[in-house]
Amino acid sequence: MFVIGNWKMNGNRELAQALTEALREHADELNQVQVGVCPPAVLLASLNEAAAETELMIGGQDVNEHQSGAHTGEHSTELLSNFGAEFTLIGHSERRQFYGDSMARVAAKVAATLANSQLTVVLCVGESEAERQAEQTFAVITEQLETALQGQTGDCLERLIIAYEPVWAIGTGLTASPEQAQQVHEFIRSWLVQKFGAEAANVALLYGGSVKPENAEALFAQQDIDGGLIGGASLQVDAFIAIAKAAATRSK
Ligand SMILES: O=C(CO)COP(=O)(O)O
């Protein structure tokens, strides 16, 4: 089971310190859970330092598809790796909606990350409220998966995680019900198996969208939910630890 916090444009060095202290304190209860955090890039170094002697994995919130050069404000796979990142989110809905991450750009980022680095890709997919109401959920997810993973072979599977984040559940307090989430996760798993073969059944599938200590256990109890991608609740150390503990009750 994975529990990954996405701090988005929040957090500071004090939060890095407080989180890593809490992880040390609860290490025994969480030893079956892979806990990760994606801080803003400027905090990667602080978090990396604070996380020494913990099992915390550090990740980027995004990555640029180019390896280096004149790309003001952007971060390459090498920069992320240099500061201790083991994985990166790609295709988060906020980047797709507000920062120009088209399907083609998401695909370029996935391809570059897999080809040029050892980082694991956490590919984010999810439908909007209008798309769900129009019963387009599976069509949208299919298109997002197909374009992002075009040209990839089974070799990518060891460094691939998919996060299902319905846009209507992100930061809204609305959570997909465990059954709604399970239905989409099951669909994603079978899509992966169809594309890459039976081995793809082992790819971890995370749910994201208003996960809180109160709903985490029911979500994580679903067969095809292998963990969570946590936004708002990851900024409160106690809530984040409680969610990680909920994952520990369902260690896979
Ligand atoms: O976008 C998310 C994680 O990437 C989810 O955010 P919230 O948990 O705040 O809904």
From TrEMBL:
Substrate binds at N6, W7, K8, G171, S210, G231, G232. Its EC number is 5.3.1.1. Belongs to the triosephosphate isomerase family. It is an enzyme of class 5 (isomerase). GO terms for cellular component: cytosol. Homodimer. CDD domains: TIM (cd00311). Coiled coil: none annotated. Involved in the gluconeogenesis. Catalyzes stereospecifically the conversion of dihydroxyacetone phosphate (DHAP) to D-glyceraldehyde-3-phosphate (G3P). InterPro entries: Aldolase_TIM (IPR013785), TIM_sf (IPR035990), TrioseP_Isoase_bac/euk (IPR022896), Triosephosphate_isomerase (IPR000652), Triosephosphate_isomerase_AS (IPR020861). SUPFAM superfamilies: Triosephosphate isomerase (TIM). PROSITE patterns: TIM_1 (PS00171), TIM_2 (PS51440). Keywords: Cytoplasm, Gluconeogenesis, Glycolysis, Isomerase. It catalyses: D-glyceraldehyde 3-phosphate = dihydroxyacetone phosphate. The active site is at H92, E165. One of its GO terms (molecular function) is triose-phosphate isomerase activity. It is found in: Cytoplasm. GO terms for biological process: gluconeogenesis; glyceraldehyde-3-phosphate biosynthetic process; glycerol catabolic process; glycolytic process. It comes from Pseudidiomarina taiwanensis. This is Triosephosphate isomerase. Pathway: Carbohydrate biosynthesis; gluconeogenesis; Carbohydrate degradation; glycolysis; D-glyceraldehyde 3-phosphate from glycerone phosphate: step 1/1; Carbohydrate metabolism; erythritol degradation. The keyword Isomerase applies.
